[in-house]
Amino acid sequence: MYARGLIGLAVILSIGSFTNAASAASADDFKAAFAKAEAANKQAGDLKNQWTTTAQQLKAAQAEAAAGDYDVAVTDAQQAEALANASIAQAKEQAAAWKQAVVH
Amino acid sequence: MRRALLLAMATLALAAPPVFAADTTNPQADFRAFRKYFTERFPKVPLNDFVNGPYSMDAGLRKQWEEIDAFPPYQFAVDKGKQMFDTPFANGKTYADCFPNKGIGIRQNYPYFDSKSGEVITLDVALNQCREANGEKPFDYNKDDMAALTAYMAFTSRGKPFAIEIPDDPRALAAYEKGKEYFYTRRGQLNFSCASCHVQNPGGHLRTEVLAPALGIVAALPIYRSEWGGMGTTSRRLTSCNSQVRAAPLKPEDPSYRDVEYFLSYMSNGLPVSGPGARP
Amino acid sequence: MASTIRMRAVASGDTTEVQALVQHPMDSGFVKDAKGDLIPPHYIEVLEFQHAGKTVFTAFWGPAVAKDPYVKFSFKGAQKGDDLTISWVDNKGQSDSLVGKIM
User: Fold this and answer.
1) pLDDT for B123-135, tens place per residue?
2) A104 contacts on B by Cβ (under 8 Å)
3) Which of A51, A72, C6, C44 is least surrounded by CB atoms within 10 angstroms?
């Protein structure tokens, strides 16, 4: 029984440490994720097709990082990158698709 | 099996790709198609009434507008604009010195294509160019001073038919075409184009607002919006339309904005200036 | 200084219809400016119309009335050519008035 208890404790501790390792984003992780998101949004800007929600998401991510919440900050930065990529895809698709909407 | 496959491939190769409208820019054809679309869709609306935007689409809203227009909320802006227009610059010159006909009754000629600079010049841009040429600081394109000045100039042009020219210059045609592209391109997280609301759904509702038809939509600019509690410029309307569909607005009087104004103004040729307008 | 009041009064028989547009910020005191500071309340408290020494219309406005308010009403007992006086006072003690002729 004592051994089972120890094993149980070992399992709990290992799960604990597993969880910590997966969620412990660092400031560097954030910087990388944020840089990627900003680069994507800049590309959208070159196509003149940024979304307001992308900028809001970037701002939110930065505020979270400033407060030290790197886990949430990384997630939000990744979401900002996804929004930026969606806006790029929209611009590329619309470059040809707009013609179909023209009144004729 | 192999022969069937080869036959299928050959058929595919011979099938013609879908044919879209001609790839060469043809503003006159666009103009005719645009006009036909709106007059056929709204046969009961007199042609000149399209310039009244939502009021040509909704009788109840029109009644309210007619009452309001008897004592218009934009009066203060027009009075302020007249005072600004009549006040000389520090160097003694006035706006009248920059414009044909002393700047009175000319709004229907804007935007125009300037062959020298290769740019589309809107009325707002021309006013700031006049200011800078006379040593004055330019006005912010989104703020009250430019709104008041353009309100007065629109007021002096009321009833005059739009007379937008596209010179036989590839740059002018390109600007027109880019404006047309901007108008029909979906943008923003909400994925709307200008056409989504103003071509596909005029007279329809967007929350509590009645959508205006694209035909003649620039004729009422600048507009006093009850929502803004004041007069707002063309730039202000374009930038707010952008952010409403969650598209990051461009800088005021960005070439894309000037081009779309050029396109829409050309589409309104012959229709009367109705500005400054009052809108909800 | 330019008047803040635009008024038009038209007599039709015994009834005079009056419209007035008053230029005033009508700040409620609840709105913040671009910096995040509250814009202090500044609104018309009382608006009055007088004809032949009598008050024919009084409005008690306040923070709920929007910018550049418009008012329209009718009253009896006036004739074309009579004077009609409109005046207002706001919460800062500022005021303005205008005398117009009934058309």
Assistant:
1) 999 999 999 999 9
2) 21, 33
3) A72
Q: How far is C44 from chain B (nearest CA, A)?
A: 16
Q: Average pLDDT for residues C78-85, to the nearest whole number?
A: 96
> Residue ranges per domain, chain C?
5-28+38-101
pLDDT band at C30 (very low <50, low <70, confident <90, very high): very high
Residue with tokens 């149980």: A8
What is the CATH superfamily name and number for domain C5-28+38-101?
Answer: Immunoglobulins (2.60.40.10)
Which of B30, B37, B176, B185 to mutate to probe the A interface, most A CBs <10 Å?
B185
Tell me, yes or no, if the pTM score tops 0.90: no
* Chains in contact with A, where contact requires at least 3 CB pairs less than 8 Å apart: B
B158-170 exposure pattern, b = at least 16 Cβ within 10 A, e = fewer: eeeebebebeeee
Q: How confident is the model at residue B123, as a pLDDT?
A: 98
Prediction ipTM score? 0.85
B70 contacts in chain C (CB < 8 Å): 19
CB pairs under 8 A between B and C: 22
